[in-house]
Amino acid sequence: MHLNPQQPSTRRRRGQHSRDRILASLQNQPDQSRDQLIQSANLTYDQVRDQTRNLCIEGLILSHIGTRGKRRYSLQATCQRWPEDGRRSSPHKTSA
Question: Domains along the chain?
Answer without folding.
Answer: 11-75 (1.10.10.10)
